[in-house]
Amino acid sequence: FYIPGTDTCIKIGGYLRVDTTFNGGAHGSPAWNGDLGQGNRFRDYFVSRSRMALTIDTRTATEYGVVRTFGQGDFQFNNFGTSSPAVLTAAGLNSNLLNTAGGGYVAVEYLFIQFAGFTFGKSASAYATPWQGAPGNINSALLGGQNTDTGVNNIQYTAELGNGVSLSIGLD
Fold first, then answer.
1. Which of 18, 49, 54, 77 is most buried when burial is the number of CB atoms within 10 A of its CB?
2. What is the DSSP letter of 120?
3. How far apart are CA 149 and CA 161, in angstroms?
4. Average pLDDT of the chain?
């Protein structure tokens, strides 16, 4: 929607996902070990993890073209303490905190400004393939895939050559 009194429009989006397993291990695995596998009094009858992404995308018309800003924050919360979940890891993140009850994290996935073909900030690499960010394809084994879910700090320039053809160069 447009912000009243400005030439700026804003889009707020994201997703929320909750995984809960009853009488089983994290991510649907069987309860073979730990407190639940032993059936002792310290067991939890369920394990749960929730992930949320919040995106804010603004675009402002100027005399020289559109200025775009984009940011995405990622949040995770869980209630299991003995599992080793596969999670996003960012620089400076203490992964030991993810394996404690009530553990989780907050991370900046993308944060960039685009203007006149230039991109400055933390975004997908100019050298990543188009499918690198597809939800089921976050895998460094794919040709051109990245080894993290998050963007990289970079400066890029993209020239639109017409008819759907573009040329990009960047410094990651």
1. 49
2. E
3. 30
4. 77
